[in-house]
Amino acid sequence: MRTVFSHIVQKRLSQESENVATAALAFILDSSEVAQNGLMKLLRGVAPGLPRLWFRTQQTDGDSRPDMWGCDAATLPHVLIENKFWAGLTEQQPVAYLELLAKQPHPTLLLVVAPGAREHTLVRELDRKLAEAGISATELVSPAGVIRSVATGLGPILALTSWEKLLAFLEREVADEPTTRSDLAQLRALCVAVDQDAFQPISAGEVSDQRTPAFMLQLGDVVRSAVALAVKDGVLDCRSLNPQADFSRIGRYAYLGAQRQVCVWIGIHFELWKAHGGTPLWVVFSNALGRAREVRPMLEPWAAQARIHTIADEEKFAVALELKLGEDQETVSKSIAEQLRSLAGLLAGMRKTPEAMAAPEPL
């Protein structure tokens, strides 16, 4: 259901959706004690013993600027809430926020709120960030309204929920408050509007931001370099196969493995990137020359153990290629080439078929 609120935000403030949603949630909590008690009920389900908290938005502590702070009467933080739609995690999230909370002498909680469609992507990304920082995570039993919660080695609990679950939980709590229910409906409409694939107005900042084409060209250089390394090492064979691009992806076809067991597509896949986040680079196995149905059971256990994202549907099986962050191009390209080598090694036992030597068809 579209509303005036969601229409105006999407029409005039589409780049500020997360900030507007945070401000709207803060307004609802400030206007309704029942809604605030409802949020505390949700939070105490994750971290029992939390005191009465008051919520403020986007206060800064050094380089950290969480969306919402839940502080006690002495203004000491007990809870931080980070509200997301489709923006990626920043360098500060979640580790710097957990470190900020870990300074407190009492139990603390960091709650991340995001669209339900990002659930699996964010779980992987949060786990990766914790692992890179050397922070242990112990799974906890998550209450209703919360997707996942873990106790971190730093002390604070890290929890993830969706806008859908959070708003549904609050709507049940404020069943007897028509005005608050109406406010929550407005916020829900904004969340639904942001999730839709409708055309979003293009801003002058987006058009003039030269970092976007620079980044895409850089990604193209990384893919070309990684493919060249893999060809040199005998992991890929591109003979008789061509680069391929359309409005959904840019990359090339190649045979994977020393015996050219399968034909794959490698490159920047915009649709998978948009749908699943994490990385723009993917290896796609079709059901025909890619032998996706045979490949999938061979690669999925390895991918699950290595926390590498995979996608399977009726047409294909796709494996995400992780980008090394904060490194130079040579290091990033070598890392991708190594990931391709790992894939080829796992498929080394596949029987070569005559079809795999044929000219490729669209994946």
Protein model, in words:
This protein has 363 residues and is α+β, with helices and mostly antiparallel strands. It has helices at 4-12, 17-31, 33-46, 95-102, 119-132, 163-173, 178-195, 204-208, 211-232, 270-276, 292-306, 329-346; strands spanning 54-57, 68-71, 77-83, 109-114, 137-139, 148-152, 157-162, 236-237, 243-245, 249-256, 262-269, 281-286, 310-312, 316-320. The protein has a 7-stranded mixed β-sheet, with helices on both faces. Strands 8, 9, 10, 11, 12, 13 and 14 form a 7-stranded antiparallel β-sheet that branches. The two termini are 37 Å apart.
Described by the principal axes of the CA atoms, the overall outline is: elongated
Q: For the report, how would you describe the main beta sheet? A: 7 strands, mixed
Computed structural class: alpha+beta
Gap between N and C termini: 37 Å
Report the total helices: 12
Radius of gyration: 23 Å
Strand elements, count: 14
Stretches where pLDDT is under 50 for at least 5 consecutive residues are 6-14, 359-363
Q: H/E order of the elements?
A: HHHEEEHEHEEEHHHHEEEEHEHEEH
Approximate strand percentage:
15-25%
If strands are numbered along the chain, what order do they take across the biggest sheet?
Answer: 1-2-3-4-7-6-5
Percent range of helical residues: 40-55%
Mean pLDDT metric: 88
